[in-house]
Amino acid sequence: MSTPDPYAALELPITATAEQIRVRHRQLALTHHPDRPTGNEEKFKAIQAAYELLIDPARKQAYDATQRLNREMEEQARRARAAGAAANESARRANEEQERILRERMREEENRRKREERAAREREELERIMREQTRQREERRQAEEREERERARRKGQTRRPEEERAEAGGWGQPGRDRAREHGHTSYNTFNNDPPPPYTPQPNPQHQAASEGTPLFPKAPQHAAKYSQSFAIAWILNSLSRLGNFLVAAAATLAIMMLGLVLAYGAFILLLWAAVAIVNLVSWLIPVIANVLFWTMNTTYNILFWIVNTFCLAIYWILRALGSIISILAWIFSFPGRIHWPARPAPYERNIAVVGVDPAGITTAYELFRLCSAGNIPHRITLYDQASHIGGRAVHIVSITPSEQVVLGANTFPKGASLLSSAAAFLGLSTDNSFNGGIDLIGSGTGQFGNYDGRSWSYNEPTLHNIFERWGWELGLNMRYGGSQAKAQDLIREFRGKLQKLEFPVTVHTLNTAGLLDLTAKTAEDFLTTNGVTESVQRELFDPWVRAQYAQNLGTISALSALAAANNRGTLKITRPEGMAGLWERMLAATDAKVQLKTRILNITAESWGGWSLSTSTETKKYDAVILAAPWGLTDLTISPSLLKPPQKIAYTAEHTTLFASAAELSPDAFSGQRDIPKVIMTTPCSWEYYETAGKSGVDGLGHAPFWSLHLLKQVVINGERMWLYQVSSPAELPDQELRRFVGGKEIGFVYRHYSPNAHPLLVPRTKFSDVLLGENLWYAGGMEEVLAGVEMASVMGKSVAEMVFKQWKSEGKFLPKERRIPVDAPAEEK
């Protein structure tokens, strides 16, 4: 039997104090006392029992504990029911997905079987047709041989038909040999001999014209009289052609007159034949026949004389006019008066790329590839004030003389088809990555875990990305109540939008693919609006974003957070030089000139449409300039000032520490965790999440002392085998903290690298920089306003290269003189 609620009997909240309980008891006891007219004995007893229970501290505490226990049990039962429902829903979705996959496989198998049957029927039909054609050819050949033997037998010949055909150069082998001796290349179609391969022979005149040599090499070149002489030559040539046409017309009339003469003779013969027939038939009508003949003959003679005289007059007039015009054209076209111009050579465009980072290297590589395919002459020059190529994405550290580690982006995502195809084309093999690097985080390769400085929220020991499998695990459904399934749907939807993105990538294409809206809101607001709980955001999303971009969900855009979670895995170059080798080979393939340690001070617009680049030592002119370096990291000036300059975005600093120790990571430094993952990502604790989610840098770090920690590999230092670790943090980590990570053991090697502009702050924004800043001035560094990483930088570089090539293709190979670099100011020396 359940105990009545004493708080309800006294009509008090459970937070009521002892004084409130006494006051309320006195009021209700006076009201419901049995001695009073309005009294109620049963209710009075209930009030007294409730008062005695609540006024006794021990009994009240026991009752409150019992009620809390009951409420907790009810809450647990409710959660268990909700978890069971979510598990059933997940199981149902999994079954539906498996059934759909099975149906698709069965459908594909049925289609494949039908295709194979159709192909088999087509092959059988083709073989039958070929056999039928072979049989018919054989029957025709045998019939012809029988006919030839029959003709030979009738003529008394004893030679076989094959010998006759061979002697006559027919379709037999002797005939073919004889044809080849005489230089013929005909082939035998009766015996199905294949035709010889066609080898096109170059036209010497066309080849000479394409190389810029004159079509008439004996004619002298006088550039000063080029325009006037060319016009005179064209007029005289036209007059000469008119004269030739008139002469041809006169010759045609002469042929017509000859035809009339022949017709006249034939008519006379016909008349004499008619007269003879008439005289022979009857002697009675000779007078009539003679009169008729005389009349017709006289009429025809008169008409013939008129036509003949008119045609002769026209013939001699046209012939005389044509001769006069030809003589005048010959006189005025005397060698020395006409100067035949040489065909101009295609103009070689000169383009400068400022910044030898992934965007600049990809721009040069793709522009070279497109121009080579389109046969557009060009020359590329790259500038960078750094001493190495690759920009911030490459930083090589020598551990030992034979051991090097590349900090920065030493890997790229598996979905980066542009970099994968370039590596394969340049002869570089790739493999799944588990080496240190910014882009490694979230790859799902090897062991990784999420640590908040006090406890582990998730530890993944398999090679599969958590975002690919979390929707089907019962344990995660029990922990997050199905919220992870909503996050999984958001990532799949984002992945589908990425596949719709087309080149060249601009604000318009981002909007068409449905990605532009994701840049206007924070990831925290976006996930909360779509039903993703705080626990999923803190324990599953935030570690990926912090490790890859050194930001929290409250400061980063939704597009960048989904891109970090969408990382299905990374690839690395199998050669020791890593990504640096890929950048070097891409530059080597372009045959471009690279000027390192060169700082661009000023870019000035020229009147002919190009730009001048000024360094501390020289100034050179180019037809076009591409700014590949982010505008906020350059200090150059552009004259005149741009109407809409690129945006200057903020960056976050990062300390990267490499240290080696013979000891492994200590469980004491990581809350007693025995199996410590190889990749540790961090997130704020639950009680500090809201305070740090909207901050960056040290203020947004939380209780954990770093963004991420990687176990890279084993190295040999001073003859001792050690573990090499990499730590990324917003502040420098002292040696004491590093030793704490390995249980207080000694550190054999330490290297610290500070990057003040490690990552762009990918805050929500609605305005973006233009790609075309001015005439022939392009900007390829704007992708860092949306997404960061070598993949997106390469995508932007390819997009700018395609737009430049499209403009050059529309302008053509032969630019007008006013659009070329002036002769007195030559471009970059070859």
TrEMBL record:
The keyword Transmembrane belongs to this UniProt entry's keyword annotation: yes
Record field: transmembrane: 245-264, 270-295, 302-332
Keyword Oxidoreductase: yes
Comp. bias regions, Pro residues: 193-203
Region described as Disordered: 73-99, 132-219
SMART domains: DnaJ
Keywords: FAD, Flavoprotein, Glycoprotein, Membrane, Oxidoreductase, Signal, Transmembrane, Transmembrane helix
Family (UniProt): Belongs to the prenylcysteine oxidase family.
Name of the molecule in the record: J domain-containing protein
Organism: Sphaerosporella brunnea
Lineage: Eukaryota, Fungi, Dikarya, Ascomycota, Pezizomycotina
